[in-house]
Amino acid sequence: MLSIWKKWSTKGTLFAKKSIYKEKIFGMITKSNPAILIIDMVKDYFDPRRNLKITPYARAIIDPIKNLTRKFRTNGWPVIFATDSFKEDDFIFSARMKPESLEGTEGAQVIDELERKPEDLWLPKPRFSAFFQTGLTKYLKEKNVTICAVAGIATPFCVLTTALDAVCYDFRSVIVSDCSAAASEEIHKETLHLYTKTALYPLLQVSASSKLFSDLGVD
Among candidates 120, 4, 29, 21, which has minimal Cα distance to 70? Predict the structure, then answer.
C-alpha cells in the first residue's frame, strides 16, 4: 500500500510541476507585447519566370500571413515587413546565389497580395536577418515589444536567422510554422523540428498561428 502511495505521490508531484511550468510559459506569452515580422515576401520570389522551387510554397502562405497581419493590426501590434535588398555585386552572389531582390528594383517590393498598410513598417535588409543593419532593435525597444513572431520565407535561412537574432537582442521569438515556407515541405518540417524544443525554449519557440493567438488571448 505504501509503495502505491509513493508512486501516486511522485506522479502527483510531477503533474504539479508540469502544471506550474505550463502556467509560467503561458504567462510569459500572454503578458508579452508582440510584433509580427514578415520576411522576404517580395515580387522576385513570386515571379514565375524565375521558376524558383520555393514559389509555390510561398504562395500557399499568403492567406495565412494576411490573417496574421490582420489580427495584429486589429490589436494595435506592430506589423513589420523585412525584405532582401541586395547590391548587384553583393558578396553573397559570389556563391551559388543568383542576383535577386536588388535594392531599389520592383522585384524587391513586397508582393501586392499582402496589402501592406501605410502604418506598417517596411525594412529593406542587406543580409538574411531582419536585425542586420536595419535599426529594427531600436524600433522594437521604442515600441516596448517583448516577443517577435516571425513568418515568411525561407524557413531555414532568413526566417530562422531573424528568429535567432531576436533572442540575441533579448526578445523572445516564435517561428510561425503555418505562415513560413521553404523550398520543399521536407526542408520546412525538418528545420522546424530541429528548433521545436532546444535549450533556448521557451525563449525560442515554434508554433502554429492558431496556438500563437490562443496564447496571446486572441480569438
Answer: 120
